[in-house]
Amino acid sequence: MAAVNPSRWSVATQTFVLQVGLAVLVIAAGLAGTFVQAQHAGDREAIARVTAVAETVAATPAVVAAVQGSAPTKALQPYAERVRLESGTDFVVIMDRDGTRFTHPDPKQIGGTFIGHTSAALAGGVVMENFTGTLGPSTRVVVPVVDSTKPAAAQVVALVAVGIRTSAVGERVRVQLPGILAAGLAAAVLSGLGTALVARRVRRQTHGLGERQLREMYEYYDAVLHAVTEGLVITDLGGRLRLANDEAVRLLGLPDDAIDRPVSSLGLTAPLTAALSDDEPREDELHVTSARVLVLNKGPALWRERRLGHVTTLRDRTDLEALTGELDSARGLTEALRSQAHETANRLHTIVSLIELGHTDRALAFATDELHVSQVLTDQVVGSVEEPALTALLLGKAAEANERGIELLVAPDVRWPPGAAPVRDVVTIVGNLIDNALDAVAGSPGERRVVFEATVEGPAAVVRVSDTGPGLPDGAVSDAFRRGYSTKEAGRAGRRGIGLALVSQTVERLGGTLDVSGPPGATFTVRLPWGGGP
Predict the structure, then answer these.
(1) Region class of 318: left (phi > 0), else alpha (psi between -120 and 50), else beta
(2) Which residues is 301 bridged to in the sheet?
(3) I want to staple 158 with a disulfide (CB 3.0 to 4.6 A). Which of 57, 74, 145, 386 is the partner?
């Protein structure tokens, strides 16, 4: 037979066993204490009773007279027996000062000497003791019989002893024992029911798992939560944060006391708060915070088909989004170069054909005009913008705009000093602002023009992009910088509506400002702090 290992029991079973054992100990101790208390109470009740009887007998005038008469036994024995029977005591002994008995329940003991202590009673006091006499162990009281008519030294004329056998006292306690046991049994039943209810609740809350299983589950799960590289957030059905691992705290910038607080009180952006609080499942949603671009996935947290809340995972896509923006710019430049190569081929064919037809002067003029237009833009951008990456970006955007039938103008006094901002941030800001402007004017029926300006105004480097599009609707300026806002149809891979949000995030991180004006059209002005001087 396998040995019982309590450590393998479930927490509920261990709790039940411990509570039952504790209840048994408490009830046993209570019963023992009650029994001892009942014995002490029986002793006190016996002493009180025999004291009252003895004092009553000693104060009876007939007894005072009889003990001083010629035949005390004849006068006192019937009286003493009647008192003994009526009071429920075991003996009422009346004796002289020397201890010679005048009365006794056993007539054979009359005339004999009282067995016990009497010195305190002879001095006018009271003797209370447990002593073994002719009737066995007993609780007794000896009091003096006083004749107040005599001188003080001779007033004690006799003694009265009244007692109850110890076995009789114990018998009275044993009579109470069934009631004590019944009370203990009732307490045990109630304790057992309470313990069973507690164990049932503990079993339901711990799912019947043992102490070792719960400890290992906590240790392993805690280790996993701290080790995973994705942010993990669990919210309950009431929208309160129940769990957030280290990565989630870092990505969301949560305070130390975030657990058990409503998500709405954590200072997150409105779209992110809504995503974490509502009941809708979400897949690969992009959310922009003040410092990061996050990919959010959300689903229900279920336990045995019961919904407990929601599980949300977060991935940091900040660097990836910036790189994606740069890739889009490079892709746009590539497409522009491809289209320019196509246009250049067409122009070369035109020039060759003009030469073959003998129109050499017109061929030369045509080639010179095209070269002049392209060279003016290139010279203007290269001469004013000292950052190569921004120069390449502007040339690429100009080619893209030309292909889309949009006029991209670079202000003649454009100037962007090197070191005003990190190159990646400059590409993010300028690229997204120009892309947004190109998209805004692409569907306009009238003039389609985008103007790029860059200059230094005091301690700030300023970028300004304006367009001739319809501008932003009334009340939409603040919405334009949150993730997902767009006046156009959804773009690829969920990127529509994130460009301006990335610009706003980047400007805020660099300590700058972003302003919007219009209509007519829309003008976006970015001011970045720069300490390079004029």
Answers:
(1) alpha
(2) 309
(3) 145
CATH architecture of 13-172: 2-Layer Sandwich (3.30)
CA angle 332, 336, 342 (to 5 degrees): 150
Query: pLDDT (tens digit, 9 = 90+) per residue, 500-518?
Result: 777 877 788 788 888 888 7
The answer to whether the bond into 300 is cis (omega within 30° of 0) is no
Q: What is the pLDDT of residues 272-289, one digit of tens each?
A: 888 888 888 888 777 777
Q: Residue 525 has which token pair?
A: 């002005």
Read off the pLDDT of each residue in 50-57 and give the average, rounded to a whole number.
86
CA distance 525 to 510: 15
Please give the Cα distance from 313 to 294 (Å, whole number): 10
Decide: helix, strand or coil at residue 157: strand
Strands 127-133 and 91-95: unpaired
Tally Cβ neighbours within 10 Å of residue 405: 9
Specify the 3-state DSSP secondary structure of 97.
coil
| Residue closest to 133 by CA, chosen among 105, 171, 158 | 105
- Cα 390–chain centre separation: 50
418 pLDDT higher than 60 = yes
Choosing among 3.30.565.10, 1.10.10.10, 3.10.150.10, 3.40.1350.10, the CATH entry for 324-529 is 3.30.565.10
The reply to whether 13-172 and 228-316 are identical in fold is: yes
Let me know: does 101 contact 111? Beta carbons within 8 Å. yes
pLDDT of residue 490: 40
- Please, what is the end-to-end C-alpha distance for the chain in angstroms? 93
**The 241-244 sheet, strands edge to edge:** 241-244, 231-236, 306-316, 293-303, 282-288
Going from the C-alpha of 519 to that of each of 50, 304, 467, 475, 479, the distances in angstroms are: 114, 56, 10, 12, 16
- Res 9 pLDDT > 70: no
- Half-sphere exposure in the Cβ direction for 346 (13 Å, CA): 7
Which of 222, 242, 220, 224 is CA-nearest to residue 233? 242
- What CA–CA distance (Å, rounded) separates 431 from 434? 5
Paired tokens of 326: 């740069």
Q: For the chain, what are the domain ranges?
A: 13-172, 228-316, 324-529
DSSP state of 109: G
SS3 state of residue 393? helix
Peptide bond into 519 cis (omega under 30): yes
Q: What CATH architecture does domain 228-316 belong to?
A: 2-Layer Sandwich (3.30)
**In a 3-state reduction of DSSP, which class is residue 474?**
coil
3 state SS of 315? strand
Which residue from 88, 80, 114 is spatially nearest to 100, judged by alpha carbons? 114
